[in-house]
Automatic annotation (TrEMBL):
Keywords: Cytoplasm, DNA replication, DNA-binding, DNA-directed DNA polymerase, Nucleotidyltransferase, Transferase. This is Beta sliding clamp. Residues 135-249 form the DNA polymerase III beta sliding clamp central domain. GO terms for molecular function: 3'-5' exonuclease activity; DNA binding; DNA-directed DNA polymerase activity. GO terms for biological process: DNA strand elongation involved in DNA replication. Gene3D superfamilies: 3.70.10.10, DNA Polymerase III, subunit A, domain 2 (3.10.150.10). Forms a ring-shaped head-to-tail homodimer around DNA. InterPro entries: DNA_clamp_sf (IPR046938), DNA_polIII_beta (IPR001001), DNA_polIII_beta_C (IPR022635), DNA_polIII_beta_cen (IPR022637), DNA_polIII_beta_N (IPR022634).
């Protein structure tokens, strides 16, 4: 195999591949990226047996072929090469080495046979549809902060993507929760998605997917089966197993009867919470909200570190309320608001609180209070 490829193109492909590779694994071939050269393209494939990413890049192929080489090492080498360099990759089958040349730099890396590289089995996808990158980006970006990190409740370790009923008809919905907070984000249902089974997209896949969604003009082809999900752009295909479990009935957690309404400037609110939380003890990080007519007092009282208080002007016309929250959860929810105003709907100091952006109900957040 022999090919030449632009450094920036190679770096993009290899960086995507090496982020999928698990640093610590017992199977040496899983640390490698499979490079296949044919025609005028080079394909870079990496997998951790749960996720597989395939990146296709234009290259000048002198000799077609394939080999596998350490993804992390190759990424480090390419990253350190000068901008604009033309990189040539030559595989010598006899010595089992891959030579990387650029300008005056020359590297030789050990390879493993391509036959040992596991390729993810193809799946029959029941639903195929395409969605604009900004739509998918919003769905996952606004929900992923609530993904649970608790391994015992493995079915919460991802984003539940499914077709749901909303006021205006059916929607494509992403939900994540860890039991303390919940995010539910809706988008218009793309054509062809009606038959989609609900799937739980793992946390790592959500992170990898984010790299495909930066281009606002891009249409992402999405394919879903009972066990796998695939996201594809013309250059990159990301295939992932989905979490084998049942996502809990989240609708029971979303409060319907919260009538006390507070409207506040989201950015000001987030900054104020951040400021008073500075003195909160790390363990509880509790912030108390005291609501009275058109004013909110945020306070923290940590006996071992100190106290803090800040007053904010808000729109609130209901009876007095005192309620406590984990500062981290409040900050994460407030940071999801793209519009100026965040609307909080309270019931009592012991009930879950609902938050949305202005009058927009397509993104709804729930946070559990804590005793302060």
């Amino acid at each position: 195999m022999k090919l030449s490829i632009e450094r920036a193109t190679l770096l993009k492909a290899v960086a995507q591949a090496q982020s999928v590779v698990e640093r610590r694994n017992t199977i040496p071939i899983l640390a490698n990226v499979l490079i296949e050269a044919e025609g005028s393209t080079a394909t870079f494939r990496a997998t951790d047996l749960d996720i597989e990413v395939v990146d296709t890049a234009p290259a000048q192929v002198e000799r077609a072929g394939a080999t596998t080489v350490s993804a992390v090492t190759l990424n480090e080498i390419v990253r350190k090469l000068p901008d604009g360099a033309l990189v040539s990759l030559t595989e010598d089958g006899a010595s089992g080495r891959l030579t990387i040349e650029a300008g005056r730099s020359n590297f030789s890396l050990a390879t493993l046979p391509k036959e040992d590289f596991p390729v993810m089995a193809t799946s029959d996808y029941a639903a195929n549809f395409s969605a604009p990158a900004p739509v998918l980006r919003r769905l996952f970006d606004k929900s992923k902060f609530a993904i649970s990190t608790e391994e015992t409740r493995y079915y919460l370790n991802g984003v539940y993507m499914h077709v749901a009923d909303a006021d205006g008809g059916k929607v494509l919905r992403c939900v994540a929760t860890d039991g303390h907070r919940l995010a539910r984000v809706d988008a218009d249902l793309p054509e062809g998605a009606e038959a989609m089974a609900g799937v739980i997209v793992p946390r790592k896949t959500v992170g990898e997917l984010r790299k495909l969604l930066d281009d606002d003009e891009m249409q992402i082809a999405v394919s879903v089966s009972e066990t796998k999900i695939r996201f594809a752009t013309p250059d990159i295909t990301l295939t992932s197993k989905v979490i084998d479990g049942t996502f809990p009935d989240y609708t029971r957690v979303i409060p319907q009867g919260n009538t006390r309404k507070m409207e506040v400037d989201a950015a000001e609110f987030a900054k104020a919470v951040d400021r008073v939380a500075t003195v909160a003890s790390d363990r509880s990080r509790a912030v108390k909200l005291q609501l009275d007519e058109d004013r909110l007092i945020l306070s923290v009282n940590a006996p071992d570190t100190g106290a803090a208080e800040e007053e904010l002007a808000v729109a609130y016309g209901d009876e007095r309320l005192e309620i406590g929250f984990n500062a981290k959860y409040l900050l994460e929810i407030a940071s999801q608001v793209d519009r100026e105003n965040a609307v909080f709907m309270f019931n009592s100091s012991g009930d879950p609180t609902l938050m949305r952006e202005g009058n927009d109900t397509s993104a709804v957040y729930v946070v559990m209070p804590m005793r302060v």
